[in-house]
Amino acid sequence: MQGQIRVHTENIFPIIKKFLYSDHEIFLRELISNAVDATRKLKTLSSAGEVKGELGELRIDVKLDKENKTITISDRGIGLTAEEMDKYLNQVAFSSAEEFLEKYKGQPDASIIGHFGLGFYSAFMVANRVDVVSLSYKDGAKAARWSCDGSPSYSIEDAQKEERGTHIILYVGEDSLDFLEDHRISSILEKFCRFLPVPIFFGDKQVNNTEPAWTKKPSDLTREDYEKFYKELYPFNETPLFWIHLNVDYPFTLTGILYFPKIKQSYEIQKDKIQLYSNQVFVTDEVKDIVPEFLMLLQGVIDSPDIPLNVSRSYLQGDPNVRKINNHITKKVADKLDEIFRNDRPSFEEKWESLGLFVKYGMMTDDKFMDKANSFHIFKDARQQKFYTLEEYRMAAETLQKNKDGKLVVLYTTDPVQQDAYISAAVDRGYVVVQMETLVDSSFINQMEAKWSEVHFVRVDADIADNLIDKKESSESVLSKEEEEKLKTMFQQELASSSHITVEIRGLNKDTSPVVATRPEFMRRMKDMAAVSGPAASFYASMPDEVTLTVNGNHAAIQLVLREADEDRQKKLVRNLADLALLSQGMLKGNDLTSFINRNVELMG
């Protein structure tokens, strides 16, 4: 029997090559997926009593013949009769090449396969001839061979085959000979077929796990099972913090396991991604539209047949099931975090270094998540091994930390070591200081001030401790007005080359440092954000640091300076005290730092 493949164009195959060539390894996934379907259909028919006798070993084999330049995919599924070959292999589902080219111009190549029933024809991306030899499971069926050389012409003829099932034989073209290398095929099988539900053999080795953990009931899995599966996915990673098993059958079908990885530092972005499957067939690890953005650092697997197997990104965004799945994942994650916080708070606090990044990012980007996260977001105390929810912080700090506008002032540090002196000064006044030192905290603070209307954040080194809460209470100074003016003049003269430094004289507690350097909260925040936001924030990044030097007139060291009779030594002492304050803010560098060190040695002499 001979005929013409029924398409409304002279030659569909050059179009297949042109549009799918950059993703040509997908051909193996498509052909093996077809073999899996044929095998599962056989099992279904057997369960219904429509197949006689034993089914035998149901497996799929991939074989290379480098001498004859062929790749063969074999299954023991339902097989095809000659009539079925004519019906199913000779019809390509679209109307014209021109319409196809125009409609899908510029879209990702992979969006075409499957979407138009082209799965089988993806074979022609690598082959210049394809033979299909098959024997149907039906009683009295005869084996048949379908053959096509990449033109619209095909042939169907009788063949010799003793066992039920199908061989698909690809005669590999000269431009695709790399697919005859064992390691090339192995890598594709590992990528696309590692969890397919029918055993797949390449050579003598089975390459897939037919029953991955996400296909089982959570009640049938132990902690060891989940951790073992994680190692199967990410063999070089540390044990995850915990996981969420997804298992939904209405209003959409969704299974999977999402793992929370350990993130030791906030800037350690994980390279391993969430993998999307459809009926255990790997689709992609680009899941931006399916998984909420703030959970993109999670790892694991999502499997849903309700997401079209190969669709363009724009179609994904508009698909109602995708939006429902996205919302469901957000809810499941929020519920899991809330459950751990309520049932095992010590464990939750222990994991906060890694969890905080997810939670804060989620609160910034998803209002529904934030509504739930308000109850389990926690601040870590900068001095004690203690954590506070926002309400707990309010109870601990509200008496002393309400500003003149009636807002709760959350005092925080971004660097507990460098800002230690400022923290000490605040804690000495009974204030509660918390750590906020992750990659997202500068943005988090700004957004939470907008969402938590009764809260204001102030970094602990934004002002002298007496002014942090913005009460503007007066301080008593032991200096006369003349002594204050003299001090101010001396400091201004020594810092005349630094136009961005302002000097003020205050009468502070005697235990407060002799000179305190502070930077305005707003400008410092903008510069912190600029450091992680790139060119968009370069305006703030390029601006000089505005610094206030508060000289504590009540400190013994300042009074010693006033009494110093040697004018040259007095100037050096003034400059040293100013430099010490700048050093505490990390703002003494280069020649200024060298001069400070040399001056100290000289004064000691």
**What is the alpha-carbon Rg in Å?**
35 Å
Task: Describe the main β-sheet briefly.
Answer: 9 strands, mixed
First-to-last CA distance: 107 Å
Outline:
elongated
State the total count of DSSP E strands: 22
Helix content bin: 25-40%
Question: What proportion strand?
Answer: 15-25%
Mean pLDDT: 83
- Unreliable segments of 5+ consecutive residues: 93-101, 107-117, 310-315
Give the C-level CATH assignment of the largest domain. Answer: Alpha Beta
Count of individual domains = 4
* The CATH homology group name of the largest domain: Histidine kinase-like ATPase, C-terminal domain
Structural class determined from secondary elements: alpha+beta
Describe this structure as you would to a colleague.
The chain is of the alpha+beta class and 605 residues long. The chain has 4 domains: 2-205, Heat Shock Protein 90 (2-Layer Sandwich); 213-343, Ribosomal Protein S5, domain 2 (2-Layer Sandwich); 378-467, Rossmann fold (3-Layer(aba) Sandwich), CATH 3.40.50; 481-604, Heat shock protein 90, C-terminal domain (Four Helix Bundle (Hemerythrin (Met), subunit A), Up-down Bundle), CATH 1.20.120.790. It is 37% helix and 18% strand. It has 20 helices and 22 strands. The chain has a 9-stranded mixed sheet, covered by helices on one side. A hairpin with an 8-residue loop joins β4 and β5. α10 (352-365) crosses α14 and α19 crosses α20 (590-604). The radius of gyration is 35 Å and the shape is elongated. The protein starts with a strand and ends with a helix.
